[in-house]
User: Fold this.
Amino acid sequence: MTEFRTFVIKLIVAFGAPWLLLILWPSISYQSLAPIAYNKDKGDELDGSYMFPMSSVNHTGATIYAQEGCAQCHSQMIRPAQMGLDAWRKGWGQDQSDRAAEPTRATTLRDYAGEKYAFLGVSRIGPDLANAGYRFENSTQVHLHLYAPKAVNEWSTMPSYKHLYVVRKQQGPESSKALPLTGTPYAPKEGFEVVPTPEAEQLAAYILSLKRDYPIPGSKALAATPAKK
Amino acid sequence: MQNEASTAEINADNLRRAAIDRSVKGPVLFLFTNAAFWLMASTFMGFIAAVKLVSPSFMDWGSWLTYGRLQPAHMDALVYGWGIQAGLGVALWLMARRTAVILKSGQGTLITLGVLWNVAVTVGIVGILGGGSRSIEWLEFPQGVWPVMLGIFVVYAFKIVNMAAKPERTEGFMVSTWYILAACLFFPWLFITANTLLNHMELGALGAAINSWYVHGVILLFFVPIGVGSAYYFIPKITGQPIHSAQLAQMGFWMLVILGGWTGMQRYIGGPLPAWMPSIGAMAGVLLLIPVGVVGLNHHLTTLGQHSQVASSPTLRFTFFGALFYPVSGLVLALLSASWSGMALQFTHAWYGYQIVAVYGFFSMCVFGAIYYIVPRLAVCEWLSVRLIRNHFWFSVYGIGTIVVTSVVGGIQHGGGLNDVANWNSSFWGVVMNSRPYISARAVAWALILWSNFWFLIHLMLMVAGLGRRSSAPTLLSHDHEDLPVTEGAKA
Assistant:
């Protein structure tokens, strides 16, 4: 009996250590994660403080993102430039041009502040979405991608999220929300139009709100400092 | 005189064993049968999900079959429907036998709770497919399901731990008991921690890290202990050899328990976390090679010279190959953890390969071995068909081997597509096209496994219904029990 008790205590200690130090303590200290103030003396161009402005992230949209399991194929994190191609990949940052002047900066803990659970992702079967808000110009582009992925890239293996859209009979002039679909098999029949459901609108708003590249306080000063030999 | 006494002892022993078996029969057989059903369901969903990864319009029957819902449903059915359920069954029987405790009461409660567990898993899977997924890996079930599952698990675990706390028999080497106790303690701990934190706290990116810790924890501290515990029980039992080294067994156990809880966050190496978190996970993930290697070595030394029995005993055959997959899963984990290979394999198909090699290749093969041993003793009849067991074995080995190899090799290519600097400008066309052959192979492998799992389920149900062979000789794979003339059998 005492042998049994010692054994169980040993088990508890062995697992309790990582549980406390790796899980519990960081979770508690995360609750007091504070924004960092910008400092013009250090070369920051912005006022206020740095923390991803989560008021702009659409929480209902995040729920739809979870329900549809988007994170199975899309990640939402940018690794530092020395750890993989993320930072230089075309279109993964703010600069959508062919040759971005600067690498996209790596995402930090504060970029996800205010999100209950950040969908860092399971795999990258599709492109990263950490800065997807810059990739799409407007919600119509997002809707086209969600409704008919193959109309955007015919090799795409992304499923069509048709169930988030309604095909309805056109009444009067075309709705301003109707998707500009062309060609078979994507375009609806003559006299019909495809419009997003509220869920689709929320999801699109969420995707458009993903912009995780606010300047980090002091980063300019850091970049300007010549490297020490 | 002495001879007579020992005969009487053996008889008493046998009677005791039969009484133990009878006392856990109901719950254990219930868990096995339902688990086998979920295994088949999971295999089926894995097959469709793999096809959909190549051709998303396959079975385009509405929202509930899109990849983003199907894939988590496939994994959750494998983990909670099959893995934990079958694992509990093995743990309950094994602990009763190890400690020689007859389960005196509560069989009815255990079966009722088993029914509830299956209801909870069904609600969870239907919830995911119906659009209630939370997209937290292995915790996708809609809220409200997890407290039920936790409660049921705790009752089972309590029964099992209680046997170990008040054993009727204390002699013998206790290594499988340790592993099962660890699994019973750690799963509820992991489950309650992950669910409470991720449901009730705002954790941002830290949440994803905790999720990854949970997934690794369930693999390393539930599936691995049950699998290794079962292997440590059946390998000596069937070969008749004692475990080669007690020191190696101790070392393998304690290193696993100590390192397991630190593993997981390396999955998001380079991610938005304090750098020490993924680093410590990477270190633990690589160091785990030591306990994995130690256990592998111990099993190897125990089975040395007994390989003919691997050919004839179904239990030993499955357990032996399960035990072989343990070092393989450790190796894949180390590849995913070490920073240079980990960054190359991050977010690739290799991650799926790891989950499958750990949960299916290693754990499930050990559990199949256990089931082939336990069920005839509980149902009091022998397995009907050598051919079905052989089919099950070969389809599983080749199927899982295919999935693991294509996922890891495909993962290396996938990682190249993601990280090769030449691709800075390319679309995902290359990644999609290069993955195609590997994913197609995965789909074919799941289809083959589905076929064998279907027959496994039928075979198991016939046994549970008491329709097995009435014979005092166990069903062995080396000779046919069919009514063949001896000469013909010898020729074949």
